[in-house]
UniProtKB/TrEMBL annotation:
UniProt record similarity statement: Belongs to the lipoxygenase family.
Pfam families in UniProt: Lipoxygenase, PLAT
Domain PLAT, first and last residues per copy: 79-214
Ranges for region Disordered: 280-299
Species: Zingiber officinale
Known role: Plant lipoxygenase may be involved in a number of diverse aspects of plant physiology including growth and development, pest resistance, and senescence or responses to wounding.
Single GO biological process annotation from the record: lipid oxidation
SMART domains named in the record: LH2
Major enzyme class: oxidoreductase
Domain Lipoxygenase: 217-674
PROSITE patterns: LIPOXYGENASE_2, LIPOXYGENASE_3, PLAT
Protein name in UniProt: Lipoxygenase
CDD domains xrefs: PLAT_LH2 (cd01751)
Amino acid sequence: MAASSEILGSSFLQQTSLLPSWNSPLFRRDEQSRLSLTPPPKQSRRRSCRAVRPPLAAVVIKERFVKVEREEKAVKFKVRAAVTVRRKNEDLGGAIANQVDALCDKLGRSVLMELVSTEMDPGTRKPRSSNEAELRGWFEKKDAKTDRVVYAAEFTVDSNFNEAGAITVLNRHQREFFLESIVVEGFACGPIHFPCNSWVQPSRLHPTKRIFFSNKPYLPSQTPAGLKELRQQELKELRGDGKGERKITDRIYDYDVYNDLGNPDKGIQFARPVLGGDKMPYPRRLRTGRPPTTTDKDAECRVEDPLPVYAPRDDQFEEGKVEMITAGARKAVLHNLLPLLVASISPESHDFKAFHEVDNLFKEGLRLKQSLQDQLFHKLPLVSKIQDLSEAKLRYDTPDIITKDKFAWLRDDEFARQTLAGINPVNIERLQAFPPISQLDPAIYGPPESAIREEHIIRHLDGLSVQQALEANKLFMLDYHDAYMPFLDRINAQDGRKAYGTRTIFFLSEQETLKPIAIELSLPPARVGDSRAKRVFTPPVDATSCWLWQLAKAHVCSNDAGVHQLVNHWLKTHACMEPFIVAAHRQLSAMHPIYKLLKPHMRYTLQVNALARQILISGGGIIESSFTPGPSGMEICAAVYRQNWRIDQETLPADLIKRQVISAVLNSIGAPLS
């Protein structure tokens, strides 16, 4: 026994499940000093996700030598998989390529799949796996007309396999395909679902096998031993190595700065500063790895529309989404570009001469002379797909408020209503001190106090003093002074642009509606040390002041539209979310429960942002052409991000408290703030 303990280890003989305790009456010693073993009684086995047969064990123990032999004959059995693939809507070229793939599949270049267990094989110290099975039915179903086609695969596993936790896929076809889901049946635990929803690239482009996990979530610390290595391998592939230019077929998530908004190779007027870094902090974008421009090594070469811009393959639009966006994009492009083209090639002036010409955009559309129409439409073949162009006009959609009241946009109550119920209801704040104070450097921008005084607004406060109105939470402000002031000189230097820093004061009336009572327009000092040029406008009392008041409101609306689009929409909704989406793909496995919750909300955002950088916020793009800040727009956006953006203040409750709006609402209904 001493020799046997040295050879096998005493712990083995004491702890192995194959042998009973040495003190058991099953062991007995005969007169030749040999141990014999009485067979133990049969034990019941608990049902698991495997089919098993009791092992046969023979134990022979001799004096001074012990030999244990264990022969476990695992039962092999088959499981079947139903594999759902979503078909593309293909043109003639795609249909031919599909037939070629089907023929190659018939000749042996098929899709290969392999099941991976959640357990490790103690012999190989690798995850247990099935045989490599071919996806069957591709050739036979090559002419199927349905959107989704279900193929089959059959795997052979043994009784030690346990539960399938992952499946690998190798696409040996010539083209990609969209793998929607896989359901494996045949295990004792029931069907195992693998939600894939991913494009599988051909092995000639991406030779590594794709990994898909079952729909069972695991935290990193809870990941079964058989899946840990695959979990890390999948994340490593998604992170990439930070080198090279990304291809459209890639699915790599990495970070970069906004160095692709300008195109200095086209001229200095198209150069734009790099957003991101210490000089101009900004959220990171998805890295594309394109080479630098010729004239500026810090700027990345652009991919101009209509060429595709990189987004990870699984984050690109699906075909239905593409068709919907394309139809809207055609009309949007025409709405933005057609007036510009008309102005550029027509010698006539196309400025609005009266308000009825603005109304005609909604009623009659943009009427063109036949010669000018032919000249334009031959240059823009896509216009033939816009139905309303058949009548030589381009009609704009009528705003809902105009359909109800043609002159609603002129009235003060509608102007005030828009601050709460319009496209940008998240900038109005309760006025906490009077007069308002600027946070800009007074050494550069002059005295910080607003030019609005008590005498400007006292007659609009329903008999209250300014202090009483403040204490009653009845004064509110829309403040675009500090956001625009540092950029006004550059904005106003552009042809056809004029902007001011604006502050608007609103009073909450007894009818629980807001009304504007003062607007301040400001310009920066002409020289350092000078005071700012400021002028205050109040509700009109005569015809002259009426139109000055309307123009002041127009400047407020212009600033409001710029802040809405550049800050509240682009920055806070798109740009600030992009690094979180990239980080989620780099750090959270598809098995992570948080990733499963976030995935539907992250869908398409990277593709939308990539297209925005290509055609919307780029130098000379639609935002610069359509909004007052022009080329300064993205710098205004970056300045707001640096000074004001904090993730802990972006939730709705935190934002309402920050703007002191919630306290005013609670006070108006007599509820305590707690």
